[in-house]
Amino acid sequence: MKGQEWYQAKDIAEDYDTKRFSRGGRLIDEREKQAVLDAVSPVEDKRILEIACGTGRFTTMLADRSGEIIGLDISNAMLQQGRQKVRNNGVGDSIEFLRGDAARLPFPDNHFDAVFAIRFFHLAETPASFLREMSRVSRDQVFFDTFNRYSTRTVYNWLLPMGSRLYSESEVDRLLRGADLTLIDEAHDFVLPYGFYRQIPDEIASSFRDADTTVGETSIGDLFASVSYWNATVQ
Q1: How far is it, in rounded angstroms, from Cα 95 to Cα 83?
Q2: 3-class DSSP state for residue 186?
Q3: For this UniProt entry, which residues form the secretion signal (predicted)?
């Protein structure tokens, strides 16, 4: 995975949420959490795996809803932040954090009701193998996001420390078929790129987000959206 050493640095983990989800980045956090909830709800009585769980933003949210949640990540530093977060939220009994490799998931076939990964596939060097593993350990649902090839992100992607793998819809379709997954729903969002929102104050970002959402509801918005959410079921 690209950036593996960078994500395992303690100082990166400690500042990760603050740098990405404060200011206008709060709107990104809210949208991603809503996307996960829309996909996997109802959470009650489900066994759910999050791959690349990072600092536990989503695992903590889902544990609040009485699910049995496992978060897996390659970075001990990120997992430490996640464990602290669930302790602070009083939901530690519902979550297990594990260090592991997404290419070799340490679980039997059909072990989870749902498996998801957010902010992961843009760093994946072998996305097909990762998606096959996600499909293998899920008995029902696989949910993930991608950054899109035909979007404003292409303008500045080369400036990012690790860059991003960008996907076309046809590439995602091939990945799904290769993992024996059937697409049941998709959503596209953020015509304005994430980096833009992180640079502006929250009160200003909200106005841009309203305009962004309006454009995003059109065919042009779908075509040039920065991020897509893919909800699939195991065949």
Answers
A1: 9
A2: strand
A3: none
Confidence of residue 7 (pLDDT cuts 50, 70, 90): low
- Phi first, then psi: what are they for 111, rounded to 5°? -85, -25
**Residue 90's CATH number:** 3.40.50.150
Helices (H) and strands (E) in the chain, counts: 11, 8
Give how many domains the chain has, as a whole number. Answer: 1
User: Do residues 48 and 40 touch, judged by C-beta distance below 8 A?
Assistant: yes
Whose structure tokens read 């949210």? 61
CA–CA distance, 68 with 45 (Å, rounded to integer): 7
Residue at 235 is within a domain: no
Q: What are the structure tokens assigned to 4, written together? A: 């593996």
Q: Scanning the structure block, which residue is given the tokens 């065919």?
A: 219
| Nearest alpha carbon to residue 28 among 141, 119, 148, 116 | 119
Q: What are the beta bridge partners of residue 183?
A: 232
Q: Which domain holds residue 224?
A: 4-230
* Residues 16-60 pLDDT 10s: 788 888 899 999 999 999 999 999 999 998 999 999 999 999 999
Question: What is d(CA 93, CA 86) in angstroms, rounded to the nearest whole number?
Answer: 9
Q: Is residue 47 part of a domain?
A: yes
Answer whether residue 147 shows pLDDT above 60. yes
**Amino acid in position 174:** R
Q: Going by C-beta distance under 8 Å and a sequence separation of 6 or more, which residues neighbour residue 103?
A: 126, 129, 130, 133
